Amino acid sequence: MSQDLYDLLGVSRDADADALKKAYRKLARQLHPDVNPDPETQERFKEVSAAYEVLSDPQKRAAYDRGGDPFGGGFGQGAGFSFTDIMDAFFGGQGGPGGQGGGGRGPRSRMRRGQDALIRIEIDLAEAAFGVSRELKVDTAVLCTACQGDGAAPGSHPVPCETCRGQGEVAHVQRSFLGEVRTLRPCAACRGFGTIIPEPCRECSGDGRVRSRRTLTVKIPGGVDTGTRVQLAEQGEIGPGGGPAGDLYVEIQVAAHETFTRHGNDLHCTVTLPMTAAALGTTLTLPTLEADVEGAGSSAGADPGVETSFDLVIEPGTQSGSQEVLRGRGVPGLRGGRGDLVVSVVVETPGRLDARQEELLRELAALRGEEQPTGQVKAQQKSVFGRLFGH
Questions:
Q1: Cα separations (Å) of 367 from 93, 148, 190, 363, 372?
Q2: Which one, of 348, 349, 326, lies nearest residue 338 by Cα?
Q3: C-alpha of 104 from chain center
Q4: Which residue in 113, 157, 260, 361 is deepest, having the highest Cβ count within 10 Å?
Q5: Residues 6+ apart with CB under 8 A from 243
Q6: Which superfamily does 117-145+207-254 belong to?
Q7: Comparing 5-91 with 261-388, is the CATH topology the same?
Q8: For residues 124 and 253, is the Cβ–Cβ distance under 8 A?
Q9: Residue 319 burial (C-beta neighbours within 10 Å; 0-12, 13-18, 19+)
Q10: Residue 208: which of 284, 122, 148 has the closest Cα?
Q11: How far is 164 from 186, CA to CA, in rounded Å?
């Protein structure tokens, strides 16, 4: 290789390590065989890689600056460079996939974040609307108190791995058209931790955590619905090695109510009236959702401002299928506001009449001129699509 190594990388002779790495990344992206398979470009890539291998090593760079032969007999003869440098050029890492300098990832920590946990609970509609606190029994991984998450039996400690000398990685060298390519792999003896536990804790078998059942209190805010998840930060599984806990998610399932059905933040209910009440009008007393809240109403200690019932006025001549909308009597929203209560009226026609009832109804029909009603036949109303497309 006759060309100056600094010229090959396009840097000055006083370039620092960052400038060298930046120049090499740029050239490697342009010249790598996977990007440009041209034979001349491959040869150029070999030269650039060899130049970077020399100049990135302080001892080899010093020898080259003094006029010595840094390759010890030519390119590819004893010259090796880390495969992580090539990966670094393409993926922008800092010295390799592990994000640490020096061309390797180093030992990985035994301490890792725990997994998130999910439990499902069923609550009543009123509890979902106004909020409630619940005690939960949770079976999760907790910190092992015998070893405090260390994984080693009391009185012992993890020791450095003799195979990788505590690095967590071992080098693997193979020949290729690039010369000797060195890759780093997790040490099989210590599984990449860099240490070995000679005497694992008997309580947790070296994992640093054990299974345990504990009791938590979760506060469910008003306005939740089926499928809503309440997050309890750091109340999930403790991580291996005593790592930080994950989060616990409580998923809500709202039980069906005997009176009300929920649509968003609106409540719907149906009242059935006899024909006479619909014709003459009446007033009905209906319960509110607050009536389901423990302690609500006029009992001792109850909030006097909470209405557990309300009066619904049925106007004379109310028809079956009509609706009464009561504003602000639905479910409170998670972000404020409150839905409505929609009351649907169903008028019930009597199915059995005694002689006197039948006689009175016939008299009423005669007074109204309805002995032989013809009925009113109307065309069926078109749907939205029918009106748009003429169907």
A1: 94, 92, 100, 6, 12
A2: 326
A3: 32
A4: 260
A5: 111, 112, 113, 114, 149, 208
A6: Urease metallochaperone UreE, N-terminal domain (2.60.260.20)
A7: no
A8: no
A9: exposed
A10: 148
A11: 9
DSSP state of 130: H
**Please, which pLDDT band fits residue 16 given cuts at 50, 70 and 90?**
confident
Pairing status of strand 229-232 against strand 248-254: antiparallel
Residue 59 corresponds to which tokens in the numbers above?
């001892």
Cα–Cα distance measured from residue 93 to residue 108, given in angstroms and rounded to the nearest whole number? 17
Question: In the CATH scheme, what architecture does the domain 5-91 have?
Answer: Orthogonal Bundle (1.10)
Tell me how far apart the alpha carbons of residues 280 and 338 are, in angstroms, rounded to a whole number. 33
Instruction: Using DSSP, state whether 225 is helix, strand or coil.
Output: coil
Q: What is the pLDDT of residue 21?
A: 85
pLDDT band at 43; cut points 50, 70, 90: confident
Q: Model confidence at 198, in pLDDT bands (50, 70, 90)?
A: very high
DSSP string, 176-196: ETTEEEEEEEE-TTTTTSSEE
- Alpha-helical runs (H) found in 180-320: 275-280
Going from N- to C-terminal start, the domains of the chain cover 5-91, 117-145+207-254, 261-388
Where residue 331 falls among pLDDT bands split at 50, 70, 90? very high
Type and span of the H or E element at 49: helix 39-55
Closest-CA residue to 290 (of 121, 124, 134, 133):
124
Question: pTM score, two decimals?
Answer: 0.61
Strands (E), the chain: 80-82, 117-123, 132-143, 159-160, 169-176, 179-186, 195-196, 209-220, 229-232, 248-254, 261-263, 266-274, 282-287, 309-314, 323-326, 341-348
61: tokens are 């760079």
How far is residue 184 from each of residues 3, 27, 171, 389, measured CA to CA in Å?
31, 23, 5, 68
Output the six-digit token pair for 26: 């740029």
The CATH architecture assigned to 261-388 reads: Sandwich (2.60)
Q: Is 123's pLDDT higher than 90?
A: yes
Lowest mean pLDDT among 76-80, 180-184, 251-255, 324-328: 76-80
CA-closest candidate to residue 321, choices 345, 349, 350, 348: 345
pLDDT above 80 for 227 = yes
